[in-house]
Amino acid sequence: MSDDKHVAPDDEALVRQNTGTIVPAISGPEFAESFRSYKLLQAAIDDSMPEEIIHIQGKPYRKKGYWKALRAAFNLTIECVHDERVEVTLDDGAVDWGWHVRYRASAPSGSFVDGDGSCFASEKGNRVRATEHNVRAHAHTRASNRAISSLVGFGEVSADEMADRGALNTSDVDSLGRTSDHDLEGEVYEVPTQEPSKPEENQKTQRRVNGNNERLITDKQVKFFHVLVKTNGRPAEFCAEYLDKTFGSPDPANIPFSEFNDVVKWLKDDGYFEAVQ
What we know:
Blueprint: H1 10-13, H2 28-48, E1 53-56, E2 59-62, H3 64-73, E3 77-89, E4 95-106, E5 112-120, H4 132-152, E6 180-182, E7 188-190, H5 219-231, H6 236-247, H7 260-268, H8 270-276
């Protein structure tokens, strides 16, 4: 009887890697049918609730009523899993405050997605006074919408997630021709039917443009940019370098108004941010 023990070769002692190809859970035709079904549902909700669509810079965005209807249609369960009040000290010493919120949307099958939402007092326009209630409520709405959209809405951006929505003008009036609307959190504001006259002595109220006559972001949006840089832990030097490379200036005040929502997405989305580095 031998006392020799079998010793596994070095290659057998290594953890074997699964090198199989990752394949989709459904076929192309099945996905196409799923997406077609979603678009039919979306059209039905839009037709039933046209007041839940708002046009910003010529593009349609859907408000929280639409996402509540989508939640009901898919029988989703929504729960808040994180709710935190935060304060941020900006470079100029000013203090901004707001809320970070996370919601979880779960399907009957057990699949779930978490959605983050934040809102700061500096985002509120002149028409709506920033209060603890409306800032926190807006963050909750954003997080809930984002969770629902990520789970069943193919990641569509909701109206409540758009930055500086208080800066609406005549180009934002929807196809119904309405000259007044409700703030996305419920307060009423007026959409002017024509550009208001600006006093000559108050040049700060006039829209700024760059050398190409493109409208630049507002002072409130510049402040919101700095808030996002700090709250999302983005290196200020890299952000300045990115702005310089993209828009020809490291100063966020020179970001074109039409590009600001993409910049906000870049700062908030870890994957998007890292891809640019």
